[in-house]
Specification:
418 residues; alpha+beta; Serine Threonine Protein Phosphatase 5, Tetratricopeptide repeat; 3 domains; eight-stranded antiparallel sheet; 15 helices; TPR-like_helical_dom_sf
Amino acid sequence: MFEFDELEAVLPHEAVAVYGAGSPEINGLYEDTGVQTHGAAIFRHSVLADQLLAREKCGEAMGWLIGVSRRPLYGLRTDALQCPATGWKALKGRGPAPKPAPSVEGFSSSADACLRLAAVWCEEAEAEALVREQKFKQGAEIYKQALGIPVLPAARRAEVHAFRARTFRQLAESKKKVRREPGRSEAGDDDEAAEDDGQEDPLHGLAAEWAIQEAEEALEHDPKCFLASWEGAIAAKHIGWWNKGRMLAKRAMQAVPAGPTHRSQRETASTLFLLMAEEEQEEKVRKVKEIQQSRHKVEPEVDPKELDWAKAVATQLNEALKSEDFKRPHHQIWKMIGPGLVKKDADMLFSEVRQLVWEKWNSIAWQHGYRTSWDAMARRSMCARVVDVANTGHGDEVKALIKEIEAGQSSKTSSSSN
């Protein structure tokens, strides 16, 4: 029987995973270039082509170096033809204590090296630690870095997208409310603090949208990724994307394997689906109430003296237009207005009608302090004052008188057209 671990140890390295270095540009996947120096392969960074890992001569001894040409960052002295995993020291590279030097793992397969690098970045070290410290943006960047690993299975790539969706969802939840701590507001800022209390940070909605986007990308790689569907549904719920949220919750239910073992996951996804349907209905009811309340106008209060004044003026104006010395010339002018009348002549006739009306109304207006004989603004001011009273909740009688005046004028129009 083959011992695969022993076989792996003696096979030449096809790729090397480097992580944990103080100089972050060093971390990543190094692939065999097919070129050898001093009896060992030279490895090149998969993204930064000038970063090399190679066996070099150090004085009279041999060793391994990582860095750019003429600027070694990390190294160690050894006669081994395979790059060692430990013992590296920082040379010109900068490294935060307590691990200034990188961890180096060689693999006979590039796929294995990529999986190891993804596991370290996403789960064992950097990203998870940043998320635990609530450094969600930095954690999302580490997951993005992991997505740049060249060889990843579709399921693993989907999982990394799902981890990134979870990080963005947590970022959205952390930014959901912007609240000032009690006692922290300065003098004179109490009103501003009250206004800011409960106000949502714009990053809340943006981060939730990022989470949904990452979840959808994960599902493109693996339609059965439960974590991606779940995180996307939660993020959609936070920003009220009910249709999108229900679709993702349904996909989460479908992604759970059948059987009693995963029943709790299936029931949780189903509960989320129903909860979003209920919240959507509640939001619709709330919006309908808000629309109804906005349409409900509060009737303005009116001074009883103002109401009596408007009623008296409207009555006088209406009665003035019922006298025979007004109705005869008024009727004769309206008879001249017909469909074939040009605009210039029509304007002249309407001007004569207005003149007849105000000849009867001027005396009334003067009684109430409006000099309407030569002042058009005074005419508009008096009429607007009467109409404003009519539009209150207590001006029904005034409104009826205004309609009677308008009806008398419109009847003249209809009779003249006939």
